[in-house]
Amino acid sequence: MSDSSRSHLPSSHDENASHFGMVGSHEYKRIPHERAVRDSIRQEAERRARRLADEEHVGRARIEQVSRELLRDLGLADAYLGWTMVAVGSAFWRPQVMQIPYQRRLLLLPHCMRSSEVCPADYTPEGLACVNCGGCRLGYLRSQAESLGYEVMIAEGSPIVMKQILSGRAEAVLGVACLNVLEKSLEKILMAGVPSLAVPLLMDSCHDTTAEDDCILEMIRTPYVPGMTSRRSYLALMRAATSLFEAGQLDSLAPRLFPGAAPAPQNPDDMALGNAVEITEAIAYEYLAGGGKYYRPFLTLAAYDAFLGGPATRMVGNAAPELPRAVKLAALAVEVFHKASLIHDDIEDGDPHRYGRLTLHAQWGTPIALNVGDFLIGLGYRLLADLRAQANDRLAAEMTSRFSAAHLRLCTGQGAELWLQRYAGDGIAVPDILRVYALKTAPAFELALLSGIKLAGADDSLDSSVHCFARYLGIAFQIQNDLEDWSWQKENKQRIGGDLLAGRPTVIQAVTCHALHRSWSSIISEMREEYTATESQWIQRMRTRLEESGAFAAARRLMTRNIERAGQEADRLAHPELRQFLFYLTDSLFVRHHAPSNVSAKDPG
């Protein structure tokens, strides 16, 4: 791998930083107690961030590298790494924030700064509705920001913030939060390349927290200086992917069989019997528009843009990229097939929640949910058929063939997992699991990327590299899901250890058996004999045992190895913008390489 590309890759150690600048392990999240130490770190962060200005890609790994060097040179402990990365990340993005008008900035304040004893404010879907009672500093900070033109939210969690950003209401985010929340809530904002600043709280608590008010005010008063040069950002393409599922564009790209029909009801009792023939389509379209990150269609749009030189990544303001209808149809089809697979997967896995709400089969019953999934498959192939009017026959036929191949591979992988779950017993080795992961996850990444570059005019010379890149990326992505199953840090999580409780085979299971030279069933039996308690307590004890066995560390090493291999495949590409996008993709998908934190199963927060 060339030296110039090496810095684009996530670091190979077990803790992976967020772009803003966090790492997963608690031992790296200590806050410097002395103000003089904090100020010295900030001053040095400003100096070193100026050196990063000329680098093409500055992701989490690069900010982490700079932060480690900073601490080493100041003679400070690595325990301050998370805090230092916030300082370096903020210093790096400050020039970009300065070119955004106050009216296009969003200030995110934490509700934990309120005075819990006197606060009369109510919570709304938008966050805490502060009434400026004077009982804490929130009202004052909010008023200072609003007087400049900011939009202010007193809330935590990335979904609501990303909604503001993707809707075009905000071009920059300024946040105040504890280190844990900065890691969990803002990583997706930074992944999009949204200019962002942050001031960490001085304590990690759910109420009555403290902060450096002068630093917050200084951040809020970051001046507006128009006319500066902007850095690469994928925000315009993320917005374009999300807009595909807004009512007007969705109905234009995928016209309904029953235009003007009533929307899907919230429960069967609200459904008029006369609308029975419309209900499948209504539920399907509501499901398409009702949730998810829309990451796969973003990959298609971004790969298309990258092959053409990346014009959309250098757009400024709120402008929307010009994208051909054929590219939009392909991106929409990628997500339609993905959503169909999720419906079927939720049924097969018995999952009751998706996107923080009931799954379709939990809400409507399995037969209706199955039928909606089948409807979406049909809709996906209709979108591919519509490509023929937008592209030449050869390309349209190739796209259909690629979608079919990906569909078959995905179902093969899912079927293999179901078979292993039911019949393999203890005979599941690590290579078996990794092969399943390559089949059930990688095809969607490969298809999304190749759809974009093929529609941009690429020949077959890139196919092999993209295939290998997607294979390694898919394996790493699935291992990360296995690790997150034991962590409360995953969004919309209802419980931990769901794979274990459902009996699903995972790489965690395979590496544990390999490390202990024992069968999985014997490990489970021993644990139940040693520790009989409530389900949540038993799962917590099981997690401790897995961590002590080295299973999480081994899984993280496997994940890191596949991330590095994906980066090596990206580095082989001669196309500079596409190579740069794949580096970004590798850096952005993997937000943590750490062991699940020791959080009580009764307290996910």
Describe the structure.
There is one protein chain. The two termini are 41 Å apart. Mean pLDDT is 82; it is low at 1-25 and 592-605. Strand 2 (122-124) and strand 3 form a beta hairpin. The strands form three sheets. This protein has a four-stranded parallel sheet with strand order 4-1-5-6, sandwiched between helices. Strands 2-3 form a two-stranded antiparallel sheet. Strands 7-8 form a two-stranded antiparallel ribbon. It is built from 25 helices and eight strands. The chain has two domains: 3-220, no CATH class; 235-489 and 500-589, Orthogonal Bundle (Farnesyl Diphosphate Synthase), CATH 1.10.600.10. Helix 13 (325-349) runs antiparallel to helix 18. It has helices at 3-6, 35-52, 60-74, 81-98, 138-148, 158-166, 179-191, 213-220, 235-243, 247-253, 279-289, 295-307, 325-349, 360-364, 366-386, 393-424, 430-440, 442-455, 463-484, 498-502, 507-516, 520-530, 535-549, 551-571, 576-589, and strands spanning 105-109, 122-124, 127-129, 151-154, 172-177, 196-200, 353-354, 357-358. The chain is mainly alpha-helical and 605 residues long.
Task: Compose a concise summary of this entry.
The protein has 605 residues and is mainly α.
Main attributes of the structure:
605 residues; Farnesyl Diphosphate Synthase; single chain; 8 strands; 2 domains
Q: Cα distance, first to last residue?
A: 41 Å
CATH domain topology of the largest domain: Farnesyl Diphosphate Synthase
- Mean pLDDT value: 82
Strand content: under 5%
Strand order of the largest sheet: 4-1-5-6
Largest sheet: 4 strands, parallel
Point out poorly predicted stretches: 1-25, 592-605
Q: CATH first level of the largest domain: which class? A: Mainly Alpha
- Give the overall shape, derived from the CA principal axes: globular
Radius of gyration: 24 Å
Secondary structure tally: strands: 8
- Which CATH-level-2 architecture of the largest domain? Orthogonal Bundle
The residue fraction in helices comes out at 55-70%
Number of structurally distinct domains: 2
